[in-house]
Backbone:
DNA sequence: ATATTATATGACACCTTGTCACTTGTCAAA
DNA sequence: TTTGACAAGTGACAAGGTGTCATATAATAT
């Protein structure tokens, strides 16, 4: 987490810094990103950077976390739209990602995040459904229609969400790494989501 | 890929170098690993390193690839043991990983690989089933008993393998990141594998 | 007005990487 | 055995990065 000093900053300065960081993380993956480059762009002295953040990663995961907040809201509205059908909501979300992704910088940022995933990055994405989190999680689980689902106990819901996000995540990565078109990516994704719904094994 | 020069090296020297590299990659994740440290341990000059490898990553993915070869053989034998039941074979493999993992260094190496996954690392793991690969893939797909599976076309098999590996992989990462005991990890994994078999959604 | 605390700053020590001019080894042909 | 050509070995070096710290400055409380 950024230090308090960062949050005390005048909005203008804070935004400039974030902009510069996003630009750098869109340019190259985290491991190749340099603080030097960020502060050059933002025109702040080196010492100041360390006044605000522990290090590169601190800043990076902060940005990623902020983005997740928006995505969480999106998921909630999609669950409502699809009567709590978690798979349909996920498919819709996947579609939004592919088609609605606005500027190129944001796309590159995501691409770099996906291709050079660290566990933390993946968590930020799957944290959409992570237990022990905010009240938002409760809102989400309440929205999920368990009628559809093949679960006995409540904790099975957690496993289902783990599976859905793991597969969805992998599909994003594939989309970028194999440079699939939106249509190809969506087809592949839909096939896998249906396999998840119905089971990989034949019904007896 | 390492350069030819590396393969021309006397076995002794090559092994020393690999040992040193494995040690370094067990110590810290790829992004923090340093060539300087490797050559210090292996007692080879800096210039030589670049005679053998493009860079850190080149060496790293080579090691990871070598390890995959062994794992592939393991999978083949497990498929035979389980009559081509891909889920049962995967569960068995997961168990082997957890329980049979020999020395601590190998464990740390894997841990670092898992927690700081890049797309390439994940691929090395899922490449167990990647299409377009060796004849071994044919051997593996031939071994898989499609009777069990809920597939119409042959390409669905690919999707099934993607799903199984994505979920298995995620489970490994969770095991390390949440520091689960072998029993906990295995329980979670088995639940998810069964959900995959039978489907996340209720049968109508 | 003064003390206290928060913020800003950039030079610095230290570390890494990848390169390159140069040395050394190898081996087949003369 | 000499020679020459090519492969391999070597370490100093430039370029660039990180995190820290002593010092300067601003802001705030007393």
Residues:
């Amino acid at each position: 987490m950024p230090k308090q000093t960062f949050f005390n900053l005048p909005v203008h300065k804070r935004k400039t810094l974030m902009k510069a960081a996003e630009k750098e993380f869109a340019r190259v993956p985290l491991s190749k990103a340099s603080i030097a480059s960020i502060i050059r762009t933002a025109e702040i002295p080196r010492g100041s950077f360390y006044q605000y953040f522990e290090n590169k990663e601190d800043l990076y995961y902060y940005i990623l976390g902020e983005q997740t907040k928006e995505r969480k809201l999106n998921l909630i509205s999609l669950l409502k739209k699809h009567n709590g059908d978690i798979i349909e909501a996920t498919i819709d979300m996947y579609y939004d990602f592919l088609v609605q992704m606005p500027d190129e910088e944001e796309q590159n940022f995501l691409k770099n995040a996906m291709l050079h995933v660290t566990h933390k990055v993946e968590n930020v994405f799957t944290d959409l459904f992570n237990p022990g989190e905010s009240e938002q999680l409760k809102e989400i689980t309440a929205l999920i229609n368990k009628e559809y689902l093949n679960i006995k106990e409540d904790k099975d819901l957690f496993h289902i969400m783990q599976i859905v996000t793991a597969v969805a995540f992998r599909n994003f990565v594939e989309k970028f790494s194999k440079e699939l078109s939106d249509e190809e990516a969506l087809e592949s994704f839909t096939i896998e989501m249906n396999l998840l719904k119905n089971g990989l094994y034949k019904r007896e």
